[in-house]
Design a protein that fits this description.
TIM Barrel; two-stranded parallel sheet; eight-stranded mixed β-sheet; about 300 residues; alpha/beta
Length: about 300
């Protein structure tokens, strides 16, 4: 990348972080009527949302607009990724009735597009794939016009689990890459970068017509050239939709925040992704995998 571009975007360097978040990362505190309604709905139906569990900065905006990302298979993860706020430990027995309650909640909200994710369940023989599949089927049975996006764990690369989810016909198959290869061992100790790429190769072999999606969070120590190289790797395995957002450290015990990317840098990365051939790139400081997910679907022509 030319030196002039580094000057425009800001050279990656170990400079001191500002004491306060930049203005472009400031959001309104949640608490509107729709936010409170969804909060109560989740409580009544004994459901979890990654919006709340992962301390998403957009929870107020999304819930106020009547959308939420449902997190199935409990709220305790078998892995301990260095950037993630979700509780790590030994999960309890999973709830076989959960898919029906998720479908009921989506019907109550009247959603056109539902996003379903989960914690990692390395303790289960199929890593939770059957519950994903049943949730998709329950949503489609109750709301035939509602598209379903699944944001799945890596299932340890097990192709039978990938197939089980895709056989239930989700409209989008999503797995987040999160970071660049150099940082995988430190940030995602339970994951493998090559496994991520193989997941997308397998997904396209099994269901070539199902759009695939991935996301990265930036600011954990990677460089812009590394981000671009990872974007190219994902495009080379036919990932269709990409999300890029700013890493926000959940606590002092989590992986350090290295830097804040500027809006100009996110715009540059978005344009670079479009040039690589992605159907849609959602890139910005507050972007998360399911942020404006319905708008992403429309923009990608899914």
């Amino acid at each position: 990348m030319p030196e002039t571009l580094y000057q425009i975007l800001g050279r990656h360097a170990a400079t001191a972080l500002p004491e306060r978040k930049p203005d472009w990362l400031k959001v309104r505190a949640p608490g509107g009527p729709n936010y409170l309604r969804i909060q109560q709905l989740m409580k009544d139906l004994r459901l979890h949302s990654v919006c709340a569990e992962a301390h998403c900065p957009n929870v107020g905006e999304c819930w106020e607009h009547g959308t939420a990302t449902f997190m199935i298979l409990g709220d305790v993860c078998t892995r301990n990724c260095a950037y993630c706020a979700i509780t790590h430990g030994r999960p309890p027995e999973y709830d076989v009735d959960e898919p029906a309650r998720v479908a009921a909640a989506i019907a109550e909200q009247g959603l056109q597009h539902a996003v379903i994710t989960s914690v990692d369940r390395d303790d289960l023989p199929d890593f939770g794939a059957a519950i994903f599949a049943e949730t998709i089927r329950q949503i489609h049975a109750r709301l035939p016009d509602c598209s379903v996006e699944v944001l799945v764990p890596d299932f340890q690369g097990n192709e039978d689990s990938i197939r089980a989810v895709l056989d239930a016909s989700p409209e989008i198959y999503n797995h987040n890459t999160e970071t660049v290869p150099r940082l995988f061992k430190r940030c995602r100790p339970g994951g493998r970068y090559e496994r991520v790429l193989e997941i997308f190769r397998a997904a396209k072999r099994i269901a070539p017509d199902v759009p695939t999606k991935s996301g990265m969070i930036l600011g954990m120590g990677e460089t812009i050239p590394e981000v671009l190289a990872t974007m190219r790797d994902l495009r080379d395995v036919d990932v269709d939709i990409l999300t890029l957002g700013q890493y926000l450290r959940p606590s002092a015990q989590h992986h350090p925040l290295d830097r804040y990317y500027t809006p100009a840098e996110f715009r540059y990365l978005r344009d670079a992704g479009v040039d690589m051939g992605y159907r849609h790139v959602e890139s910005g400081p507050l972007v998360r995998s399911s942020y404006h997910a319905w708008e992403q679907v429309l923009a990608a022509g899914v």
